[in-house]
Amino acid sequence: MSIEQYIYESKKMKKTLHMALIDPEKQSVEDAVKIALRCKNAGTDAIMIGGSTGITTKNIDMTATAVKRATSLPTIYFPAGPHALSTQCDAMYYMSILNSRDLNMVVRAQAFAAPYVKKIGIEPISMGYVIVEPGMKVGKITKADLVKRSDISAAIGYALGAQYLGMRLIYFETGSGADKEVPHEMIKAVKEQIDIPLIVGGGIRTPEIAKAVREAGADVIVTGTLVESCSDENEIKKVITAAKGC
Ligand code: 1GP
Known about the structure:
The chain has 10 helices and 8 strands. The protein is an alpha/beta fold. Helix content is 46%, strand content 18%. The longest helix is centred in the middle third of the chain and has 18 residues. It starts with a helix and ends with a helix. It is globular and about 45 Å long. The structure holds SN-glycerol-1-phosphate (1GP). SN-glycerol-1-phosphate binds next to strand 8 and helix 9.
């Protein structure tokens, strides 16, 4: 089964997935493996590997190979740009930053990378990516016109637009390390309008927030800062259990 099918099957069965995000720039391969093993024991469903800066094919692939060997979990490349393409992850989000002002982020980098992606043979999963306030580093790097936290209609427009363009996933993000997650009423309103799976990330660090994001309608919940900064497996388990609802 492809990773895309896995996400769609889970959605069909009304199972919320948790994905742990590991940034290879932030720790050694050995520490990345420790984080991934902790997350596996705590119940995560997949490991996303990537970050906004300092990403190379080498650090992505060394991390992906070691994480796969240690955990057997699916690995998904969360790309930083066409300068670094993973040959070892099981899949990659083939993503367009829908609210970027920079055409490179919307479609040009994707066009540049496409022949290499075909050659590598990695599974590309078409995904629209929308950055909501506060946006953090990723909002700045991608030159995003951040979606205002109160602008539900803009959020719906991006999500439905992505679906009509044929994208298979939509990801709403407030930025890694954000002090706020995507507003719950925004998640709920978007979810009511779309059929494609909804991924939500940024600022999710407590069981209460994870539960609220799941109940608002996220199909996939991503946590990065928590899993990288907390070495207490029980604490991580509480958040992952709340994210998955089981
Ligand atoms: C970033 O959505 C992810 O792309 C994760 O954010 O680091 O805040 O969990 P956090």
